């Protein structure tokens, strides 16, 4: 007998490969020591927050004895914080918005769940390119919807626009585009997005049902080659941008993000009211008070991009020297190389023997590849070089 639902039991049986490898790493570190394991499993930023975060926390602490200093605020967030975030989003998306178009959220994940609760109903479908962040399927499933991944172009991981449009049905309610992309590091071009936006709008009109185009952008600042990251606001009216400060401020554990609704959306005000409600009834109530206050001081700060750029170069060298094929990530902090073995799980086992932790591509809906998170010290990346070479030789 069990109190756990059959659905959740199924989820647990097929739980995230990212977490499985992370937990395997804990055991390896216990056995061999921290310095003996090269753990590239989890996208947990290791850089300390910018100095402005410490300064903000000090000021928050100095005022913590005032009435309601850490109390509730409107479900959508502090109005002054929403205005500050709106100004930043206006710059990034090249579209004027105000604080009224922003809902503060418990990270990007909380924002996605609040949005899905507002727009999805049982039987709906959500489309995304594959490979994809595995939690998308769980988030959609929370509200009785189904995720439909569509394979990206092999090895380059550019959008297969024809494939995505072919997947649209009368049940389609949303499409998620994650750029810079986890796990591939790809950044979608304006040409791809404009073509897709135009054809998606046509498909929505043909089916007589609005389709929400979602930009999931927690990695926006990790743009190593300074290429354009086009605004979905500019290519599709029924669009929503979801962001977080987990990566650029190294505040992953503080769970602070936002949902920004395109002012061009015909039902923008209705959706914003719905998001305010779903933020409350899902139990988030409001985004964390302290994290919102931090943003008052730090919204224009970020960790040093150059450190991640150097780590990308170091990881590229390790993979090249080991003879592993990869596409250089343009953004985010992941590599998604091709496995030397068709069954990447077997190659992952060889890496574990070398005390190297990676995540199999099947965990992202893309067998034959594996993911490496390079948000670790450069010395760890360089220390893994010989282990990668030995693992590749063992496969041959």
Secondary-structure blueprint:
Elements: H1 6-13, H2 17-32, E1 38-39, H3 51-62, H4 79-93, E2 102-105, H5 107-119, E3 125-130, H6 135-141, E4 146-151, H7 161-166, E5 172-178, H8 190-207, E6 212-216, E7 239-244, E8 257-261, H9 268-281, H10 289-298, H11 305-322, E9 334-335, H12 344-353, E10 356-357, E11 359-360, E12 370-373, H13 378-383, H14 385-395
Parallel strand pairs: 1-10, 3-4, 3-5, 5-6, 6-7
Antiparallel strand pairs: 2-8, 7-8, 9-12, 11-12
What this model shows, in words?
With 396 residues, the chain is of the alpha/beta class. It has two domains: 6-49 and 303-395, Alpha-Beta Complex (Aspartate Aminotransferase, domain 1); 71-298, Type I PLP-dependent aspartate aminotransferase-like (Major domain) (Aspartate Aminotransferase, domain 2, 3-Layer(aba) Sandwich), CATH 3.40.640. The protein has 14 helices and twelve strands. It has a seven-stranded mixed sheet with strand order 2-8-7-6-5-3-4, sandwiched between helices. The longest helix is centred in the middle third of the chain and has 18 residues, at 190-207. It is globular, with a radius of gyration of 21 Å.
């Amino acid at each position: 007998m069990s109190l756990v639902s059959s659905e959740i039991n199924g989820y647990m049986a097929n739980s995230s490969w990212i977490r499985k490898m992370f937990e395997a790493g804990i055991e390896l570190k216990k056995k061999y020591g921290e310095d003996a394991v090269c753990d590239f499993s989890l996208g947990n930023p290791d850089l300390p927050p910018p100095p402005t975060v410490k300064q903000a926390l000090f000021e928050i602490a100095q005022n913590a004895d005032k009435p309601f200093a850490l109390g509730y605020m409107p479900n959508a967030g502090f109005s002054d914080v929403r205005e500050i975030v709106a100004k930043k989003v206006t710059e990034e998306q090249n579209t004027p918005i105000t604080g009224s178009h922003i809902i503060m959220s418990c990270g990007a994940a909380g924002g996605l769940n609040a949005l899905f609760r507002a727009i999805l109903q049982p039987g709906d479908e959500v489309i995304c390119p594959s490979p994809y962040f595995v939690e998308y399927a769980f988030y959609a499933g929370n509200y009785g919807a189904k995720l439909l991944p569509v394979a990206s172009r092999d090895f380059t991981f550019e959008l297969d626009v024809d494939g995505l449009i072919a997947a649209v049905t009368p049940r389609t309610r949303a499409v998620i585009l994650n750029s810079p992309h986890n796990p591939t590091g790809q950044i979608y071009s304006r040409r791809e997005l404009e073509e897709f936006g135009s054809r998606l709008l046509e498909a929505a009109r043909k089916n007589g049902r609005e389709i929400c185009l979602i930009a999931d952008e927690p990695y926006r600042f990790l743009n190593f080659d300074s290429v354009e990251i086009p605004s979905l606001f500019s290519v599709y009216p029924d669009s929503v941008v979801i962001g977080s400060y987990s990566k650029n401020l190294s505040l992953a554990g503080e769970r602070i993000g936002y949902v920004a609704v395109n002012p061009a959306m015909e039902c923008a005000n209705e959706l914003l009211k719905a998001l305010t409600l779903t933020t409350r009834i899902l139990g988030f109530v409001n985004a964390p008070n302290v994290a919102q206050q931090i943003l008052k001081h730090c919204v224009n700060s970020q960790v040093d991009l150059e450190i991640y750029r150097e780590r990308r170069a170091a990881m590229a060298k390790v993979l090249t020297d080991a003879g592993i094929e990869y596409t250089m990530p343009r953004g985010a902090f992941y590599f998604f190389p091709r496995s030397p073995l068709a069954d990447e799980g077997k190659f992952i086992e060889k890496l574990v023997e070398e005390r190297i932790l990676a995540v199999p591509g099947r965990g992202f809906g893309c067998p034959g590849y594996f993911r490496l998170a390079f948000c670790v010290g450069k010395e760890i990346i360089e220390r893994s070089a010989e282990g990668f070479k030995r693992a590749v030789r063992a496969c041959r």
